[in-house]
Amino acid sequence: MRIGAVLWLLCCVLLVLAGCAPRVSPPAVYHAVAWQDLPGWQEDDLVPALSAFRRSCEVLQTRESWTEPCREAQALPKESTTIRRFFERRFVPWQLQQEDGSGDGLITGYYVPDIDARRTPSAQYRYPIYGRPDDLLVIDLSSVYPELGRYRLRGRIEGQRVVPYWQRSEIDGNCSPLKGDELFWVKDPVELFFLQVQGSGRVNLPDGERVMVNYADQNGHPYRSIGQLLLERHVMTRDQMSMQNIAAWARLHPQEVQALLNENPSYVFFRPLELASDTPPGALGVPLTAERSLAVDPRYVPLGTPVYLATQRPDSEQSLQRLMVAQDTGGAIKGRVRADFFWGVGDQAGSYAGRMKHNGQLWLLLPQGVAPEQNGK
C-alpha cells in the first residue's frame, strides 16, 4: 500500500474516533448569583454609574425588556441608596465564567490622550493621523457564509483582484499610498501609535482649537503587541511593562522605533468629531463616562448593559469594585471575562490606563425575567 493511501486511511480512522469520542461541553458562560455575592456592592457610590446607565438608555429604551428599567432610571434621584435598591429590584447579577469554570479574567485600562498637532506638516510635525481612505473595502460574507457573520474582511482593488489592504510598514513608508488622506500631523510616532491603540484622542491645535478624533476603521491586519515583543526580547520585565516605559524606551532608541512599530501590521484610521462632549462616543454610540464605562467583548456582554467589576487599582494594592456600563469594544478585548476600563482624558488618565493589567471578575446585570444566552451571542 502506498504511503499516501496509508496516511489517508489513518486520517479517516482518526476522524471516526474523534466523532465517537464523548464531547465535553464547557461550563456555562453565565451563573446567576445573589447581590451579596458581589464584593463591595454595598460600598459603591452609584450616582456616577446611574449617569452612565442613563446614557446607555438612549439606545436601550427602545428594546422591550429595557423600556421600563430605563424609564424608571430617568426619574431616580441622585442618591446612592435609592439607586442601589432600584438595581436590586429590577436586575439579576450573572457572573461570567471562563471555559474552565473560573471567574477570573484580564482587566486592562484605556484613555483618551491629549496630543499636540498641526494641520500641515513641518520638520517637527511629520507623522500623519490618517482619515479613512476611500479605497478601503469592507467585505461582509454573512449573506453567503452566515457562520462568518461576525467577521469583516478589509482589502483594496488591484487590477481585477481584491488584495489585502496596505499594512503599517507600507503606510508609514517613504512612499505612503495614503498621501492626501491626512487629517493632522503630530511629532511623536509612539504617541501616534498609542492613539491608534486607544482608538480616540483629543487633538490640540496651536490656535487653541481642540478636535476629538475617533476610530473610523482599521486596515484589516491583525494586531500584534509591541509590549509583548519587548518582553520576548528581554528589553523589560513584565513588572516594568507600561505605556510610560515603552515611551521611555523609544526616546532612548529613536533609530529602532519604526522597525518595532512595523512589526504590528494593524493600522487605525480616524474621523474628526465636534466636541459635543468631553469624551468620545464608544461603540454603543453614546459618550463614554470616565471610570464608569467598560470596553467588552459583545459576544458575551451586550453593549449598553450594566456590568459589576471587581479588580485592583493600578496605582496601589487597593481594590477597585464598582458598577460599570458596557459601552465600548476593542480589537484586543476578546473573551468571556475580559474588559478595558475607561479612565478618561489626559495624562493622569493615561498614567492609570498604562499601568492597569490585573485579574478581575465581571457580573452582567440583566432585567428580571431576562436570561442570557449561555453560548454567548
Question: In words, what does this structure look like?
Answer:
- Mean pLDDT is 88; it is low at 1-18.
- Helix 2 (47-60) crosses helix 3.
- It contains 10 helices and 17 strands.
- The strands form 4 sheets. A 6-stranded mixed barrel has the order 3-16-13-15-14-17. A 4-stranded mixed sheet has the order 4-10-11-12, with helices on one face.
- Helix content is 27%, strand content 28%.
- The longest helix is centred in the first third of the chain and has 18 residues, at 3-20.
- It is an alpha+beta fold.
- A hairpin with a 5-residue loop joins strand 10 and strand 11 (210-218).
- The protein is globular.
- It has 2 domains: 30-110 and 283-367, Barwin-like endoglucanases (Beta Barrel), CATH 2.40.40; 119-273, Barwin-like endoglucanases (Ribosomal Protein L25, Chain P).
Write the layout of secondary structure elements.
Elements: H1 3-20, E1 30-32, H2 47-60, H3 64-75, H4 80-90, E2 91-96, E3 105-112, E4 114-116, E5 127-130, E6 137-140, E7 152-158, E8 161-164, H5 168-171, E9 182-186, H6 189-198, E10 200-204, E11 210-218, H7 226-232, H8 243-252, H9 257-262, E12 268-273, E13 293-296, E14 306-312, E15 319-328, E16 338-345, H10 347-355, E17 357-367
Parallel strand pairs: 3-16, 4-10, 13-15
Antiparallel strand pairs: 1-2, 2-17, 3-17, 5-9, 6-7, 7-8, 10-11, 11-12, 13-16, 14-15, 14-17
Helix pairs in contact: 2-3
